[in-house]
Structure formats: structure tokens, C-alpha cells
Amino acid sequence: MRLTTKGRYAVTAMLDLAFHSERTPVTLMDIATRQTISLSYLEQLFSRLRRAEMVVVVRGPGGGYQLSRPVAEINISDIIKAVDEQIDSTQCGGETNCQNQKACLTHDLWMGLSNQIHHYLASISLADLLERKPIQEVASRQEQDVEHLIELRREVIVRL
Amino acid sequence: MRLTTKGRYAVTAMLDLAFHSERTPVTLMDIATRQTISLSYLEQLFSRLRRAEMVVVVRGPGGGYQLSRPVAEINISDIIKAVDEQIDSTQCGGETNCQNQKACLTHDLWMGLSNQIHHYLASISLADLLERKPIQEVASRQEQDVEHLIELRREVIVRL
DNA sequence: ATATAGTTGACTGATTTACTGGGTTAAGGA
DNA sequence: TCCTTAACCCAGTAAATCAGTCAACTATAT
Ligand code: FES
Ligand code: FES
Questions:
Q1: Which residue of B has its CA nearest to A10?
Q2: Could you tell me what percent of chain B has a pLDDT over 70?
Q3: Residue B13 sits in a domain of what CATH number?
Q4: Residues with CB under 6 A from ligand 1
């Protein structure tokens, strides 16, 4: 399997949206500040998330992103698949052909592992994560940490 | 997490040993031929497997490798850990510090995934894999495919 | 002695990651 | 109608990782 920062950032960003986009859209700049992810990198990820119809976009001033459906209907494996293309532990990518067009000795094992991982991640929704105490704590810590930065940005904008 | 050909090859090679090293040691050359893995690459992997005491070695002519304990006592996660160092899905490697020395939003989630994967792979032993029908079939197919190559090598050796 | 077979470390080409920049397009407000 | 916001898109790139090679060495059986 491959699980890189791409998939991790995507889930982190979606969870950030889940926490903050209930009423108004959230800009990538806000997410970038709260989650310390590069803005340009987020743009790439959201381009894919939008194409996968995980988020909806509002352009222009006051715009940003919102989740496309209720948090209970968005699961982690969908998010990862949207940006990372596959959640597959096999060498062959499911083609059963990694040893001269035939099955290798361990194909079976990796298929089992892939299924295991897939079921686990598919069983967890953003709603589940929102409920977890440790995650709520991190989220509120992040808000406090960067509150002044985001406010500052807003004030500067207003003043100009 | 990272699961690369390194870990996959190691499991494949150990399974090959499980099938063939019951009586006499198996050379890396034989494994390389049956599993179509580069000999030099196998050497690297077995150097680690030996240090992790997963295999025992017999040097010199007629030598090779054997499993260090019964197949039922060798599980997949041990093999992968021996060559791949970690079976961890977190960014922080369990340090809980990937966002300015503090926990990121999704640390909890990746820890859960890591545990899930670990338990799954730890629950499977080489003995379990040996019993699986599809794996037995692949193993016997491989033996037939390369039998003549290995025999040929033996004959050439005898003749010299 | 000599061939077998494992041991070790350095090294390399190819690919992927994570990220940056620059310019474009859509929408709201003065 | 400008100007600004903020998403969109594409090309490029430094660094890391992977998969594998090479070469020189040691131990052992015949
Ligand atoms: S992993 Fe599918 S054939 Fe090897
Ligand atoms: S994954 Fe552990 S702190 Fe981010």
C-alpha cells in the first residue's frame, strides 16, 4: 500500500473543513494556517477532491470550500482514494500478474491485507472522528494557536 | 505505512524457504530462480533476516538458509519488521509531534490504522499461508516452471 | 586448492514526493 | 468598471526513496 502525506493531508484538510465549514465556506489559506500545510499543495489536493465530488467550491471574495455531503456520509477511504488513487497493498495492483504474467506466491496475502485496510478505513466517517475527544482537543488547540494570525489577516484586509 | 517490494520480497522468500528448506538448506540462487528476485537484492534482505534471527545459515557448498524456528512461530509482521523497520502509518512515527512538536489532527486515526494492520499481519503465520490452497498451487507451478533450470545448474556443477 | 555460498558496503539510475511559482479565471464590492 | 479575493491550472524542481548492481571478502566442504 502507499499512504503518504498526500493522503494524510487530504484527510486532515477534510477534517478541518468538517470542523469549520458548517456555516460559511473555508478558504484554503485558513486550512493552510491551521494545519501548517503549504497553500499551493492544498490547491492540488482540493482540485482532486473537487473532481471526486467530496467538496463544493464558492469562488470569489468570501468564498472557499465546503463539504459536499453530511459528515456521516464521508468516509476516510473515499478521501484517500480521491487523492491517492489506490489503497492497494499488492505489487500487481490487483492484476495477479507480477511474476511473468502469473500470480506470485504472496498475492493472496496482500489482497487480504488490502481488504482489511479498506474495510477499516471505510468503516470510519468524518462524523466518527469529530466525536473523538482527543481530536476535538487538538482542533481547539489549533484554533487558539492560529486565531490571532487569521484575525490579523482579516484586519489587514479590512483596513486596506 | 510503507509496504514496498522489500517487505513483499522478504515474505515471499521466507515462504519459499518454508516450502523447500524442511530437509536441506536452500540457496539464495534457488529462491532467486523460483521467485524471480535478483540474487544481489536477496542477499541484502537475508542479511537483515539473519540479524533478526529469522533464519539460520549454512555456509559453503551444500549450504544455504533454513528457517530458525517452526513455521507456526513465524508471523508476517515479524518478517516485514525485520527488513522494513516499521509498520507504522503515522507521519510522526509514534512521536505525536508532527505539527510543531504537537499532535496533528489525524494522529489518532493513523495510530488506529497502524494497530489494525499490525494485528492482522501478526495473526498470520507462515504455517497459515502454507495451508492455503491457492498458495500451494502457485508454489507447485513455480517448481515445475524452474525445475529444469535448477536441475541444469546442478548437472553442470556435477559434470565440472 | 578450489569451487560454493554467504557477507558487506558503496554506489547508481529511475521514480516519486512534496512543494514552489506564475499566470488565469470567476465572482463580489466600491 | 476596476479592483480584490480566492480558486484553478500547469510546469518545474530539489530531495528523498527505491530497486537493484558491483566488487571485494570470508567461511566451508570436497
Ligand atoms: S501481488 Fe499480485 S501477483 Fe504478485
Ligand atoms: S501523525 Fe502523529 S502527530 Fe501527526
A1: B106
A2: 92
A3: 1.10.10.10
A4: A 90-92, 96-98, 103-104, 107, 110
User: Structure pTM?
Assistant: 0.91
Whether residue A154 is predicted with pLDDT greater than 90 in this model: the reply is no
CA of B142 to C1' of C6 (A): 24
The reply to whether A100 Cβ lies less than 7 angstroms from strand C is no
From A131's Cα to the closest Cα of chain B, the distance in A is 12
Q: What's the confidence (pLDDT) of residue B147?
A: 78
Mark yes or no for CB contact A124/B109 under 8 Å: yes
Please tell me whether residues A79 and A18 are part of one structural domain.
Answer: yes
* B62 CB neighbours strand C below 7 A: yes
- The pLDDT score that the predictor gives to residue B156 is 60
User: What are B111's three cell numbers?
Assistant: 495510530
B92 in the same domain as B66: no
| Mean pLDDT taken over chain B | 91
Q: State which ligand 1 atom lies nearest to the alpha carbon of A90.
A: 1
Residue B98 structural domain: 87-124
Task: Classify residue A18 as exposed, middle or buried by CB count within 10 Å of its CB (0-12, 13-18, 19+).
Answer: buried
**For the residues B43-71, what does the mean pLDDT come to?**
96
Nine-digit cell string for A131 = 466525536
pLDDT at A55 over 70: yes
With residue B66 as reference, give the H or E element that holds it: strand B64-67
Query: Does residue A8 have a pLDDT over 90?
Result: yes
Q: Say if B140 falls within a structural domain.
A: no
Instruction: Tell whether the torsion through CA atoms of B130, B133, B135 and B139 is positive or negative.
Output: positive
Q: How far is the CA of B63 from the C1' of D25 (A)?
A: 18
**B34, B64, B86 - which closes a domain:** B86
> Last residue of a domain, which of A86, A109, A132?
A86
